[in-house]
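Project standup — Tuesday

K.O.: blocked on the structure for the chain from last sprint. Re-posting the sequence here as requested.
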Amino acid sequence: MTKYFLFTYKFVLVFLITYLIFGTFFYIFITSKYYGIEGAFSAFLVGEGDRELWDLARSLMIPFQIIRGILLSTVLYPFYDQILTFTYKKRMLVIWGYITIVAGVASGLPAPGNLEGILFMKPVITLGIHFEIFCELLLQGFAFSLIFSKWVEINRH
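H.V.: unblocked you, prediction finished:
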């Protein structure tokens, strides 16, 4: 059980840090314009235009990402021993694929940046917007996998 908790702790910590770094960077420099009152996301996402809901969402962001990290790590944990047999490069690519593809691009719910979103979202969410969000998913997943793939092998016994 201790092995599981250490794995989950490392996963959640790296997930939370990379989420906050890449989410903040992309929000400040690229995607904030979509969250405004007239932004492309305003019809379906909480944004700055509704201050009360925006503040609530921001106050719950970290707890929700911790829960998300626990869920993602719990699904990956049964493969822990197998993953540790991989070279660092292979482990990093497998974890990057898991985070980026399974938890992002191939998610079954339509959202900006994923396949279901491209198929089912109204044209106000342009391919350019999907691409920008996809880049955030890709880079966050890559940074996560670089760090976690190395850290998970430290003190593994």
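K.O.: great, moving the ticket to review. The chain has six helices and no strands. Residues 2-31 form the longest helix (30 residues).
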